[in-house]
Task: structure prediction
Amino acid sequence: MKILLITTGGTIFSKKNLTGGLAPYENNNTLFSEIPELNHFAEIEICNIFLKDSSNINPDDWILIIKKIYETKNLFDGFIIAHGTDTMAYTSAILSYTLGSLEKPVVLTGSMLPAAYPETDAKDNLINSFKFMRALIDKNQSNVSICFNGKLMHGTRVKKNDSRSTDAFISVSYNDIGTVVNGEAKIGITPFIDKPGLNNFSYNSIDSIEGIRFEKNIFSIKLFPGFPADYLSKIIDIKPLAIIIDSFGAGGLPHLGENLLPIVEKAVLSDIIVVISTQCPKGVVDLSTYEVGQKAMNLGAISAHDMTYEAAVTKLMWLMAVLPTLPVQKVKDFFLHNFCDEIKNK
Result:
């Protein structure tokens, strides 16, 4: 088994700076001395693409990761990405969409404590990543996933749920793909991947990825009781290509007092995609359930259904970049299509 370990910085490769704050530093050369067990799992090559706290990662960095994987896809059996935890769920989601034609597994991991710390969780997470990688290769399973705290989680269903615990990630409305039991990696489920659908819109060759980009002209707001309608109106005046409204419950949008519906209608008539998501950690946005959702749906807003926020945002960034000439309604249709278990088949 030959694996490319891609490092991007993050806590796993951090140390305290002069002010006492953790910041990434180049220490790849000491990784195998700190975790010598890694040499037992595979022939490993390390590639440091960039060195960042993951809060600083942006879509241009995703492109660097994607290009490196496609450039070397014929040289390795799989790819492990060491990544900061804060935006790992965004990276795993965007890679799930863009690596649709890749027939090899990609596993992201990281740690809550630096690898050099005696009590670090980096050692277990890296070792488990290689265990899961071997199990995925044995099953010929090639989805993008996150390995953390003995769990393997599907790339479009993961959310960072705790800023301090070593059990920092959860699978949202989805079972874990696998777990480590008595030191052995067990794969329990195989996520649905619409490979023909992804191949139509993903980058499947070195030439095709030269023009890769992601649409950033997207706005997101989180509602609270009394959210001023004028705020939303001013956002629409900026003319984003899409806006995600993190609403209440199953998709409630207020229309008494501060009435947001006329602004939603204004957005839709301006060909701005309006997506209604929910502030609830679990559950499904169903705009047909209550009047407060029906009114928004009738004006042309669409539901995020059970997508995580990270999966919904990156899906818009991906689709709106690869489908810039399609009518807005067609982009909406693709947004509601299940490509890689980011949304339940309705």
About this structure: Residues 14 and 84 are 10 Å apart (CA to CA). Residues 122-138 form the longest helix (17 residues).
